[in-house]
Amino acid sequence: MIGTLIVVLTIGSFASEADDLQALNNAAARFVVAMQSVLDLPMAADCFETNSRADEFAAAKVAYYKAAREAIPSLIQMAKGERTGNQYGEDLIELFRGSGQEADQAATEMLLSKLRECENSREQQTVQDAERVAEQFLKDFGQLDGV
User: Fold this and answer.
1) For residue 132, how many other CB atoms are within 10 A of its CB?
2) What is the DSSP string of the chain?
3) How far apart are CA 86 and CA 95, in angstroms?
4) Would you say residue 147 lies in a domain?
5) Could you tell me the residue range of the domain that residue 8 belongs to?
6) pTM of the entire structure?
7) pLDDT band at residue 79 using 50, 70 and 90 as cut-offs
8) Tell me, what's the pLDDT at 143?
9) Residue 30 maps to a domain
10) Radius of gyration of the chain (CA)
11) What domain count does the chain have?
């Protein structure tokens, strides 16, 4: 009976880790698309288009870091070399160590600059809030033992 319970808990743990990593993978893909959409924003884009892309970007960024927070246990195990069974695991770890940070920063700066030109734009605050979510995650992730 105890052996069966341990097997069920172990299988459930692996399934949960796989779900967390898949959710993170999906969120990362959405975030990359949103970043690229912002970076491809025409210089002559009107406020409506800029606000729309800002909303998409901020939502994708927050979702990405929320999924990352939920996947931390799995990411730590991968970073320590305890688990290497997922193809995209190492790529996800690299994202937190700085890859992609330049594109994110460029997209954030571009959006904030364009949003300053738009009157009564609430999206500027939304983008700044998303930036704070990212900064807090990176601060927390960097303080974890073994990472």
Assistant:
1) 10
2) -HHHHHHHHHHHHHHHHHHHHHHHHHHHHHHHHHHHHHHT--TT--HHHHHHHHHHHHHHHHHHHHHHHHTHHHHHHHHTTS----TTHHHHHHHHTTTTHHHHHHHHHHHHHHHHTSTT-THHHHHHHHHHHHHHHHHHHHTSTT-
3) 15
4) no
5) 2-142
6) 0.75
7) low
8) 63
9) yes
10) 18
11) 1
Q: What percent of the chain has pLDDT over 70?
A: 69
Residue in 2, 74, 68, 3 with CA at minimum distance from that of residue 30: 68
pLDDT tens digits, 6-22: 333 333 344 456 788 88
Contact 36, 24 (CB under 8 A): no
Per-residue pLDDT of 41-69, as tens digits, reads: 998 899 999 999 999 999 999 999 999 88
Among residues 144, 5, 6, 12, the alpha carbon closest in space to that of 78 is found at 144
Please say whether the beta carbons of 49 and 41 come within 8 A: yes
> By the 8 A CB rule, do 86 and 30 touch?
no
Residue 124 contacts by C-beta under 8 Å, 6 or more apart in sequence?
54, 112, 115, 116, 118
pLDDT band at 95 (very low <50, low <70, confident <90, very high): low
